[in-house]
C-alpha cells in the first residue's frame, strides 16, 4: 500500500465514523470550558510538560520568532505584514490548483469522502453590550464587504465590521472561551443563511454538537440541512497528511459554498513540528491555502505561558489579518475577570481598549462601556 493511499484511508475512516455517530444519539457528556468558564479537557491537554525543543522559540521578539537559516524565511526581504493579508481568493498567493476530488480522475479518492464530502458536493449556496462605542473615528475607507462576528459588544468595538475573507485568530489561555468564540461566530452566520465549516483538532464531533445545542444554537439541524459541516481530525494524522489536506480543502470549501470556517485549534497543529523553521513554513502554507479558498476564517490558539498577548509559538499572529486576545485579569482584591483586547484588524478601525466579558449560556457578552475593575 502506498503512502498516499494510507493517508486517504485514515481520512475516509474518520468521516465514516462521523456518519455512524450521526445516525445514533450521542451519549457523550460535554464538560466544555466555554460552558462552565473553566478549562476544558482539551485545554488541560496543553498543561502537560512538552519536550523542550518543541517550544523553544522566543515568542517575545518578532524577529527572533522567525529566525533560522535552514529554510527560506517567508517573512524576510520586502515581505510586510500586509503581504499576508491582501491576497484575494483567486489564488494571488500562487500555487497550482488542487485536483478536484469529485472528478472521476481524482487519484486515490478524496480525503474528505464521507459526511463532509457529500455535504460539500450536494449543498447549494446558503443563503447586547451597548449601542455606543468608546472611540470616535471615521469609518475606514474600503470597498471590502464587512461582516459581524455575532458577539455582543465586541462588534460595536469594530467600526464597520470585519472585512470578508479575512483570516482571524483568537488567542487565550485555557478556559477563556476560545471554542465558544468560534462557535458563536459560526452561529451568527448560520442564522443569516450562510454555510459554515467547523474543524476541531481537540474535541469530537459529538462534543461540539452538544456544546452548541445546549446553548440553543441547533447545530444538529444546520448539519442535517447541509448548511454546516463539523469535521473532527486527529492532529497527528492531519500533520502527516497536511499536503493532501492543504490541496483539497480550498476546493471543497468552494464546493460547499462555505462563507465561514473555524479551526480549533492551530496550536495542536503547530506542536507537531519540533523544528521552528519547519513549523512556520507548514503553518504559513496552511493559512495561505485558507486565504486562497476565499472563506472568512477564525482560528483559535493557545496563549504563551509567559505572555498572554502572544500565541504559544509566536507565529500565527503574524499570518492573520485580525488578532483577538482573551485573557484573565486579576485585580488588587484578588478578583479575577475575563477581558478581551483587539490587537489588530487590517483594513478596519477598532477600539484598542481592554474590556471585560462573560461566558454565559447565551455565549460571550463583551461589556464595551465597562472598565475591567
UniProtKB/TrEMBL annotation:
Entry annotated with the keyword Nucleotide-binding:
yes
**Amino acid composition bias (Low complexity), ranges on this chain:** 22-40, 53-66, 112-123
Q: Establish whether keyword Cell membrane is in the entry.
A: no
Region span, Disordered: 1-138
Q: Name one GO molecular function term.
A: ATP binding
Q: Which InterPro entries match?
A: Circ_KaiC_arc, KaiC-like_dom, KaiC_dom, P-loop_NTPase
Domain KaiC residue range list = 145-373
Q: Which UniProt keywords apply?
A: ATP-binding, Nucleotide-binding
Regions of biased composition (Acidic residues) lie at: 1-21, 41-52, 67-89
Note the NCBIfam families from the entry.
Answer: KaiC_arch_3
- Stored PANTHER family: UPF0273 PROTEIN TM_0370
Output this protein's name: KaiC domain-containing protein
Q: Which organism is it from?
A: Halapricum salinum
